[in-house]
Amino acid sequence: MPREPEVQDVGGDGDAARVLRHAAELKRFSRRGFLAGAGSASVLAADMIFTRRVQAERRVHKILTVPDETAGKYFPHASWFLFPGYKTSWEEALWILNALRGALNKRGQLAAVGYSNVGLDIDEIVIAVVEHARAHQLTTLYFYGHSFGGMVATQVAARLRELHGLEVALILLDSSPCTKYDVLDQSWFEGVVLLYESGFRFPTVLRGGYELGERVLHKDERSWGQVLDQTLEQLSPIAPSTVLIQSESAYIYHFDATRFAGKLGGTRMAFIGNPRDRTVDYAAARDSWSLIFKDNMASDSLRTDGARPAHASPGWNPFVYRPIIEELEDELFPLPSGGGRKTAF
Question: Which helix (H) or strand (E) holds 110?
């Protein structure tokens, strides 16, 4: 008869039992670990597929619109264009438009520029704006420059007039820096721009850590809920790509407003901001814009006091921003019915 295999003595019956028990525990642990790992891998794979799809759809600059029946009826040939700020996603740009809709739709329809995840390209933005204006037969354009978007709006306005004979009626600068020196935290320029121009691209996970650290550093400007929401937004598949963010940094670093002085024709400009702004030097930015564009600046005294965070936050503080926008509209572009608070609807 075949003999039963003997269990090797490893120090007595107690040691043998412990070995068998550890083996059983390892088996159970491996099964749990395998299931957990498989589940995590599935979630990661789904996220990567969705991210790839989103990124593929955002390889071009696109004009995003918020339909508004009132604006379409009363201002069929006029439109606002929002130029989003640094690290602002397409979804956040639309959110800002919706937050300000009650004020913006009193002079025009609502549109925003969705920046390409391939990187910022002013020529492509100009083409996108021109094509949208022609397709919708727009003759009056209002630009809203959200933070660094004010720089982009100014250059695009100058290009539109020079290349296409299309003059912008208003450029509203919301806490917009005029030069890189208006940005209070200069440290990020040293690394981000240098690495970008050297061909290095940041992986998303590193950007996410930076996002969280930056917001915690300026915690006094945000609630913990806002810190969490904004950080998760930057880590989500719909967030701007690292390439776009780096190209925006390089754009701010090299922007020279004096190149566009005297090239805006009759375009009016207005600067609004908050002295408590800890991202952009409010006084320095306001004074620089007013000095360089003294022939265009129509208003630089309106302030967004009470807004939190203090820097360019119309989405979070629409009830602070709407009255300011309406005041500018009534002062600079009174309606044919007599202006002031007498509106067409």
Answer: strand 109-114
